[in-house]
């Protein structure tokens, strides 16, 4: 028997995970996604899945499929100096008693294919090129007017529409906007060199090169650096800029630069933004998840993990409470501090990277390990 109807606005990682979790909890779930299809909402390259992301994906039956197409690492990572010498190992954390690895990497399109297949299999409906125009919350449901001229009433609306959420103003009084960290990153897929069997971070004088395995033969390179807000680069200048920025590197980063950064390379450039919305993350029958309430910079590879965990906790809370107000309150209470730790720690690492001299006592690896150990705790 159906427990009710849910509209999820946004078919990204958080929206799809939440859809599966709610469907498994016997809700009828429809997802509207503003983009044309599954591919147009997903930019390329890869995604880091720490062990807590895998645990959350396991709860919705998606972890095995992600590991089957990705690369499961036996440790979190390593830090190297600019010449490629080992500075230290970063073991990461395992969930006690679990078979899940400390980290799995895969491409974003692969992750979307896994989530969409599971969502459809469980009976979720997904409509592309569609969104809402207005939401009207009432005692018996939320009236929704859609961009295609249709309308209807649902029991709940989940805003999973990312960092520039259009659902957010229906929940929060304050008009919060993402904050630009001051760093941006280049990313491109490369063949996996044998030593890229975990996350490798190589510190340069003005930026951090990183390598993430995302398949048996595939990895991605990122280069994270201080970057003026709003400055954009045309695609045809990206390879030159990236090669120049990585000129000081030897070792792995030097070899990858010389072998794989081509003028024809498909390079993704992204500014890094963050926000943490004040609690509560709901109003009436409308509730927010994922980047809409806690967008995080990529320094700990935790953004998607947190969005997936949100979906699991939201479904558990709705199952555990007869009253939606209590369920949504319990959801935010379980999520807020955990998400805040991830957002604030990621920002602290970024600030350190931008000016290490300003933070002489900052322990990058220590903070990473602390957050990973915290993420082992049950959600
Ligand atoms: C460069 C970069 C690298 C990252 N690397 C990692 C990583 O390695 N590991 C990790 O865990 N996290 C990583 N993250 C963070 C991660 O991508 C996000 O935290 C995660 O995607 C959030 O999921 P979400 O579903 O909340 O939002 P999104 O993934 O942004 O999904 C939102 C969806 O809503 C749709 N949408 C938007 N507006 C509307 C609307 N009005 N109506 C309908 N649909 C709408 C969008 O098209 C999109 O499909 C990274 C982020 C960046 C920028």
Give structural notes.
There is one protein chain. This protein has 379 residues and is α/β, with parallel strands linked by helices. The chain has a domain at 4-74 and 102-177 and 274-353 and 369-376: FAD/NAD(P)-binding domain. It contains 10 helices and 19 strands. It has helices at 13-24, 51-59, 63-69, 108-122, 235-245, 251-260, 291-294, 303-320, 324-354, 364-376, and strands at residues 4-9, 27-33, 46-50, 71-73, 77-80, 86-90, 103-107, 125-128, 132-138, 141-146, 151-154, 156-159, 179-191, 199-203, 207-213, 218-226, 268-274, 282-283, 286-288. Strands 6-5-14-15-16-13-17 form a 7-stranded mixed β-sheet, with helices on both faces. It has a 6-stranded mixed β-sheet with strand order 8-2-1-12-19-18, covered by helices on one side. Strand 10 and strand 11 (151-154) form a beta hairpin. The model has no long low-confidence stretch (mean pLDDT 96). The structure holds flavin-adenine dinucleotide (FAD).
Which compounds are bound in this model? flavin-adenine dinucleotide
**What fraction, in percent, of the residue positions are helical?**
25-40%
CATH homologous superfamily heading of the domain at 4-74 and 102-177 and 274-353 and 369-376: FAD/NAD(P)-binding domain
Shape: globular
β content, as a range?
A: 25-35%
**What series of H and E elements makes up the topology?**
EHEEHHEEEEHEEEEEEEEEHHEEEHHHH
What would you report as the Rg, rounded to the nearest angstrom? 21 Å
Alpha plus pi helix count: 10
- Mind summarizing the main beta sheet? 7 strands, mixed
Q: Detail the poorly predicted runs.
A: none
The strand order across the widest sheet is: 6-5-14-15-16-13-17
Q: Helix/strand/pairing class, anyone?
A: alpha/beta
Give the end-to-end Cα distance, rounded to a whole number of Å.
28 Å
- Strand tally: 19
CATH topology of the domain at 4-74 and 102-177 and 274-353 and 369-376: FAD/NAD(P)-binding domain
Q: Under the CATH scheme, which class of the domain at 4-74 and 102-177 and 274-353 and 369-376? A: Alpha Beta
Q: Mean pLDDT, as a whole number?
A: 96
CATH architecture of the domain at 4-74 and 102-177 and 274-353 and 369-376: 3-Layer(bba) Sandwich
């Amino acid at each position: 028997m159906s427990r009710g109807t849910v509209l999820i606005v946004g078919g990204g990682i958080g929206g799809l995970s939440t859809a599966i979790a709610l469907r498994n909890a016997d809700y009828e779930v429809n997802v509207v996604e503003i983009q044309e299809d599954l591919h147009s909402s997903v930019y390329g390259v890869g995604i880091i899945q720490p062990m807590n992301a895998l645990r959350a994906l396991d709860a919705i039956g998606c972890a095995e499929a992600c590991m089957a197409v990705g690369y499961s690492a036996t440790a979190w990572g390593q830090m190297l100096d600019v010449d490629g010498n080992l500075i230290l190992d970063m073991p990461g954390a395992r969930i006690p008693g679990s078979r899940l690895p400390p980290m799995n990497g895969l491409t974003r399109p692969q992750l979307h294919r896994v989530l969409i297949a599971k969502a459809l299999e469980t009976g979720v409906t997904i409509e592309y090129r569609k969104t809402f125009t207005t939401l009207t919350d009432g005692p018996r449901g939320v009236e929704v007017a859609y961009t295609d001229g249709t309308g209807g009433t649902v029991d709940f609306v989940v805003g999973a529409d990312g960092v520039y959420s259009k659902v957010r103003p229906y929940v929060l009084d304050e008009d919060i906007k993402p904050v630009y960290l001051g760093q941006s990153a280049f990313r491109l897929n490369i063949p996996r060199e044998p030593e890229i069997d975990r996350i490798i971070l190589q510190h340069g004088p003005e930026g951090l090169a990183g390598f993430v395995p995302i398949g048996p033969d595939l990895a991605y390179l990122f280069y994270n650096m201080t970057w003026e807000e709003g400055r954009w680069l045309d695609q045809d200048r990206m390879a030159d800029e990236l090669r120049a920025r990585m000129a000081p590197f030897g070792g792995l980063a030097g070899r990858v630069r010389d072998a794989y950064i081509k003028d024809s390379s498909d390079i993704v450039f992204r500014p890094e933004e963050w926000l943490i919305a004040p609690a509560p993350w709901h109003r009436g029958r409308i509730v927010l998840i994922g980047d809409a309430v806690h967008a995080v910079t990529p320094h700990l590879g935790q953004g998607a993990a947190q969005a997936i965990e949100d979906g699991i906790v939201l479904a558990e809370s709705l199952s555990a409470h007869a009253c939606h107000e209590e369920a949504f309150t319990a959801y935010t209470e379980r999520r807020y501090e955990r998400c805040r730790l991830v957002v604030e720690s990621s920002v602290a690492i970024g600030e350190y990277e931008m000016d290490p001299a300003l933070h002489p006592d900052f322990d990058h690896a220590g903070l990473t390990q602390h957050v990973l150990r915290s993420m082992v705790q049950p959600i």
